């Protein structure tokens, strides 16, 4: 049996372990919290992500190690890579952890990005505002997620406050993109270099946090899908990436703009558990274990709703065919992702009706 170590024991680690159990892959997770979501379904090592004793234990019990979040310390990834195979490669982490490197890489592979400028001081910010204009967003280069570490700017007046608000750390100023909608593309690349892609997904965010994903996104032309796949492939090849990679995109009248990437399984791919021939979790494991990738075609229309901040009682969800609840077993906290519901239906209008029932009964 192949043994996979996962750095991180959140819901993504939990769903990786669940997918692994079904296909004979045994997962062990490393997480600082003793009651992590993944600890409910997999062996769990409790330790900090930089704890070399814990990392060595994870490596010793695994044939291959992966991660479920992109802010794994790069030094820990290298420490692991000296002892065991690590996929995706640490290079994917390095680019995904730094918005400046990431945006520069997007440009190199031909993906459009919003005009941006690096900012290392308040003076830089004043200069960047002249180049980038308004409205714009000041984002920390590192450790930003779900809209954290971001400040919107509408005029030069707010520069001192904005620089303070991001903590006076290296950042980028980025133009606001007046997008029609947000999309994401999920690709997966195997050890042999073969790649597969899921259909473009439409995502709705509120307060910087993903609320719903609809798959496949409506009205996507084959040209648009092909363009997104082409860019994702070049990116994965450039990084030597193995495993799932997600790119968050803005769709505009001038085509797709890349916002950010995640070198891991992604919230906008949760629908694939029930809505695609092979889930993103299984395909990530298949890729890093050197197995042939599973087919990625959607089996129907899917919509996924995140349950954020408070977890409704499981009994409130309507008992309808195609409605699937996932609870992560986490403590309630404002803004925290506690679970999700996926609704699958062969008919788009019926899907819409079920989705409304689900969101109304769950109060989301
Ligand atoms: P991020 O943390 O970069 O993924 O940003 C979270 C969300 O904020 C995105 O999904 C968008 O909804 C919004 N956002 C971020 N950057 C931009 C931008 N340059 N233009 C418009 N909306 C943005």
How do the strands and helices of this protein lay out in sequence?
Elements: E1 2-7, H1 11-22, E2 25-31, E3 43-46, H2 52-60, E4 64-67, H3 74-81, E5 85-86, H4 90-96, H5 99-108, E6 116-119, H6 122-132, E7 136-140, E8 150-153, H7 159-165, E9 171-175, E10 181-189, E11 195-197, E12 201-206, E13 209-215, H8 222-239, E14 243-252, E15 255-262, H9 272-275, H10 280-288, E16 301-308, E17 323-327, E18 337-345, H11 348-362
Parallel strand pairs: 1-2, 1-4, 2-3, 4-5
Antiparallel strand pairs: 6-9, 7-8, 7-9, 10-11, 10-12, 10-14, 12-13, 13-16, 14-15, 16-18, 17-18
Helix pairs in contact: 1-10
The structure holds adenosine monophosphate.
Adenosine monophosphate (AMP) binds next to strand 15.
Please tell me about this protein's structure.
With 364 residues, this protein is of the alpha+beta class. The strands form three sheets. Strands 10, 11, 12, 13, 14, 15, 16, 17 and 18 form a nine-stranded antiparallel beta sheet that branches. Helix 1 packs across helix 10. Bound molecules: adenosine monophosphate.
Helix-strand category: alpha+beta
Distance between the termini: 41 Å
Strand and helix order: EHEEHEHEHHEHEEHEEEEEHEEHHEEEH
Strand element count? 18
| Low-confidence region ranges | none
Q: Which percent bin holds the helix content?
A: 25-40%
Bound chemical compounds: adenosine monophosphate
How is the main sheet built?
9 strands, antiparallel
**Average pLDDT rating:** 96
Give the radius of gyration. 20 Å
What form results from the Cα inertia axes? globular
Provide the β-strand percentage band: 25-35%
Counted by DSSP, the helix tally is 11
């Amino acid at each position: 049996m192949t043994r996979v170590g996962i750095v991180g024991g959140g819901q993504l680690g939990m769903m990786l372990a669940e997918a692994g159990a079904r296909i004979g892959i045994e997962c062990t997770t490393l997480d600082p919290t003793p009651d992590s979501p993944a600890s409910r379904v997999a062996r769990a090592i409790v330790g900090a992500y930089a704890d070399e004793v814990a990392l060595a234990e994870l490596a010793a019990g695994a044939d291959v190690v992966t991660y479920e979040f992109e802010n794994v310390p790069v030094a820990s990834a290298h420490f692991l890579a000296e002892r065991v195979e690590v996929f995706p490669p640490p290079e994917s982490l390095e680019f995904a952890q730094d918005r400046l490197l990431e945006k520069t890489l997007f440009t190199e592979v031909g993906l459009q990005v919003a005009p941006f400028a690096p900012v290392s001081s308040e003076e830089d910010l004043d200069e960047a505002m002249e180049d980038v204009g308004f409205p714009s967003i000041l984002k920390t280069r590192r450790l930003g997620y779900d809209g954290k570490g971001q400040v919107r700017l509408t005029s030069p007046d707010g520069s001192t406050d904005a620089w303070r608000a991001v903590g006076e750390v290296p950042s980028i100023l980025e133009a606001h993109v007046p997008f029609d909608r947000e999309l994401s593309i999920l690709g997966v690349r195997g050890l042999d270099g073969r790649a597969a892609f899921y259909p473009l997904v439409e995502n709705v965010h509120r307060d910087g946090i993903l609320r719903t994903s609809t798959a496949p996104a409506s009205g996507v032309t084959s040209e648009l899908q092909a363009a997104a796949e082409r860019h994702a492939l070049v990116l994965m090849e450039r990084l030597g990436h193995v495993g799932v990679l997600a790119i968050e995109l803005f769709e505009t009248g001038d085509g797709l703009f890349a916002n950010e990437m995640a070198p891991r399984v992604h919230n906008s791919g949760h629908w694939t558990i029930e809505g695609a021939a092979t889930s993103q979790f299984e395909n990530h494991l298949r890729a890093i274990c050197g197995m042939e990738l599973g087919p990625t075609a959607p089996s129907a229309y899917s919509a996924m709703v995140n349950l954020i901040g408070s977890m409704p009682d499981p009994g409130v969800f309507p008992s309808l065919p195609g409605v699937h609840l996932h609870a992560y077993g986490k403590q309630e906290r404002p803004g925290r992702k506690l679970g999700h519901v996926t609704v699958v239906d062969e008919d788009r209008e019926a899907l819409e009706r079920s989705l409304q029932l689900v969101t109304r009964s769950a109060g989301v």
